[in-house]
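If you are new to this repository, start here. Below is one unmodified record pulled from the training split, so you can see the exact layout before writing a loader.
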Amino acid sequence: MARPDKAAAVAELTGEFRESNGAVLTEYRGLTVAQITELRRSLGQSARFRIVKNTLTKIAVTEAGVDEQVKDLLV
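And here is the target side for that same chain:
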């Protein structure tokens, strides 16, 4: 991913963390495509499921000011 793409992704994530009432961080490895699709459907219209690199997420939560709540979860 090129730097402008990374910067845009971080900016989008930062906005989502700032505007969100909550976030659920999960480990998705080991799930099949069918299981991930079912998870996305079960979340409904008001939630989003995204796969994001830990590094970009760490930057976004720091910029959003919520790093204290989630920094230990991003390993």
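Two things worth knowing about this chain: The mean pLDDT is 90. The CA atoms of residues 17 and 64 lie 6 Å apart.
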